[in-house]
Amino acid sequence: MGPGFGESIVCHIGGNEWIIVDSCIEPKAKRPAPLLYLEAIGVNPASAVKLVLATHWDQDHIRGLGEVVETCVTAEFSCANAFLKDEFQYYIDEILIGNQDRGAKDIQQAFQSVKKSGRIVKRATPGRALLRRQAANQPSVVLWSLSPSDKEHDLFLQEIADVRPSAGEPMRQAIARTPNLASVVSLLVIDDCAVLLGADMETKTDADRGWNAVIDEHAKLMLARAGLVKIPHHGSKGAHHDGMWNDLLETATFAVIAPFGRGESKGRPPTDDDLQRIRALASKLYVTARHTTTKPPARNPTVTRGLREGNIQTRSLSKSLGLVRLRKAAGGEWQPELFGPAFEVQMPQKIGLKPQ
Amino acid sequence: MNALTHFIPLESEYNLDDSPFDISDPWSKVAIDARAATAAAATHMHTERTDHLVPHVYETMYRLRQLKSSMIGLAPDAGVASFNLQSDDAVASAPPEFLLTRTAPPIRRPRGNTSVVVAEWEGYVTRIDADFIEARLTGLSGQGVAGEIEEATIPNAEIADTDPLLVAVGGLFRLCVSYEKSPTGERRRYSTIVFRRLPAYRQGDLDAAHERTRQRLNALRVE
Amino acid sequence: MASNSPILESSKTEVVLVGRFAPDELHPKKLLEAKVLTEAEVQRATINALLPGQIVDFALDWVTVQVVAQRTAFVSSQAPYVRIADLALKTVREIMRAPAITMLGINREFNFTFTSTEARDTFGSRLAPPEAWGAWGKSVRNEFSNQLNSGKHGGLIAIQMRQAAPDDREAGWIDVTVGSSSNAASPLGVVVRVNDHYQTSESADPQSLSKDGHEASRTSRLLDALFNSFDESVHRSDAIAHELVML
Questions:
Q1: Mutating which of C50, C74, C238 best tests the B interface, going by the most B Cβ atoms within 10 A?
Q2: What is the ipTM metric for this complex?
Q3: Residue A352 lies in a domain
Q4: Best label site of A234, B48, B209, C158, fewest CB within 10 Å?
């Protein structure tokens, strides 16, 4: 699901057990979208969710994470190994001195919650099974972590070391420079069905990084190919890797994109070109929301004119959460359902700007 | 000048006609050792405490400002206006001077104008470009503003006066839209962007944060 | 907006710290050395009063700073007001060597002008009905038909309300005072002052600290209150003042 900025994935692994991957805020209710969804379909997150995975530290993937972890009291928590290192943990507490940075607060709250409840935190390292279930009368389930590589782990920690505050520096907001470095790509295998969750993994030329490293890991483990993929990094060109399509995915693959709704509208991923590229490779392509420019609520005309006279342009964030739901019976096909502004990409199609 | 000679009796009304200074001379500087003056006053009043004289010093300052105004008025084009106030010059090798300051008028907000804020946002910089910055805004006050989260593109010209060290990715600022009213009743609308000069991180606070981290890490069950 | 609603003419915000200070530490040149102020700001500063060891009083474009031994005040009538909180925090934390703060005030003053004598009288009568003052009060009410400048038009001069021990602090209060404007050019003017006062409570003192340690702890807690509560205090004061005059 995605409101145009932010994404979250909830996976039912059978037996009314669930996994949550990342979190975002539902714009109208201002609560974590995965919790709202589960509650809406009559699932009690406190007992049903078995694992919460935070794929990386970026605002659009962790908003509301603290509340999710706190609510899902029987769930283990998993994140990249780098998040559990002293450097990152110190950084989170340092940046929160005198600052209400929401992203850092969410991460801190998640760890505090896990610590308080004595739950286990699982390091997401390449080749690790974050969750494994083999039970009679239940589908067998494994959630494999395929990244980040050792090199990316080290680079991420180096970057954190570079931005950690020192005494004498003025307080500031935490901004992750290259947050996708520590992205956790995962493969969910339920019986003979596999789903590739691409997080925000990008493509690098280095064999030890990016999708090159993920593909190697997948090959080492001799894992199944996925028939459904959450496209990495909002469908951007920088995250495209032919090897992902050729080596990790089935020939006929369903694909889902959660767009990135921040920044100047021109160039926000996925662009029209991104959609066409991906649509040509997938058998079906769905997007959780369109790029929109939502009108702000009614304001005092002095405000609007004052901003205009200062040449300051403002853009309100999308107020709608889109949801792409795909269900599959054993041996069957993926059945899509679309909610809110989610839509299917036909060939050819422009995502375009569409005021709401 | 001997401070005692020119001691201004703090307990009595100050009379310009009795001033020891030649007020017809625009280049004359008003020089008083205020510390010596209050000490002398204290002696005169048989007390060593000076803090109760603080209000009298304000009164003295007021009188001195009147004197200064009259001096400047006598020679408006004489370039008299450069006085600097330097309290740490009140030490003794040269006669200590207690000078008055010329006020530089504010550029955008003439005295007498009052401003009312109509909307305010807190923002932080997400990207810096050659001609503009991009920022994330959280609305703090104002109809249709409070509670809203927005993005903004702000031309660099609007933040030209800001200390460049503050304009960094992650830098926090406030954006206000206000109107001001001149003493004659004219209203003028304007927007203001002010980068915050937040307190610096202190080692003690960082150490306390590290202690919290250690406690958390020690208690986490990690596999 | 109803036609009887007053117009907000101006507002002012101040951060007041009570305790022990060394005024010389806040000389503008010291603030420049510590990079709390820029050179341009210091050059444009107006020094209102400077008495070594006793007083520092200067004004920049956007703030007036007044420091004496027991009190430091940062006053501004220009938004964004958070600047004065930032300045107070920065100067206390980074420049003052051994400050001791025992009380904090985040105070706001609003100057409203009513559009008519009747509207102003209605407002005053709502806050303090003359009839509640007995026959004498009724006689005051009877004179309301006189012009304001006739010398015969009496009424409410000032009224104050306190919220004791708000939950968001160790100790303190919120006082709101409403009174006639002292600006002779504004006979229909009304001033609303909000004093949002913070103090520490002994029960919150960490145990086993020395006297100096307690002093430092209380100072630190009040500074934290300033940092964490300033925006909320300003908005609350805005809401109180506007609701008061608009009801």
A1: C50
A2: 0.85
A3: no
A4: B48
